[in-house]
Amino acid sequence: MDIEVPICPNCESSVHVVLSNTGKKVGTAVGGTVGAAAGYAGASSGAAAGAAIGSVIPIVGTAVGAIGGGVLGAITGFFTGAAVGNQVGEHVDRHIICEYRCNRCGYVFEA
Fold this sequence. Notes:
This protein is mainly alpha-helical. The chain has one domain (21-110). The chain contains 3 helices and 3 strands. The chain has a 3-stranded antiparallel β-sheet. It starts with 16 loop residues before the first strand and ends with a strand. The model has no long low-confidence stretch (mean pLDDT 86). This is Glycine zipper domain-containing protein.
């Protein structure tokens, strides 16, 4: 499905018109933050498993396994949340905000 690009009302070019990315940027940041928090909170079982596996090497292995499980859960949650937030933000930009910018003349307009 091709996406229609509007024509700039100022210079009448459609080649240089791009969608404003405000919602996409905000969605990525918020999604990543929420995803990291949820991933870290949900990684308690991963941290417990990491600690159990790491307990083969007494003190150090348990700590490294627990920290590793929590960090891995946070990183996985961050990337998952950021990807979802990016898609939601792009949808908001394209269908709700509808703000475009012409890179040729710098004009910002709504389509």
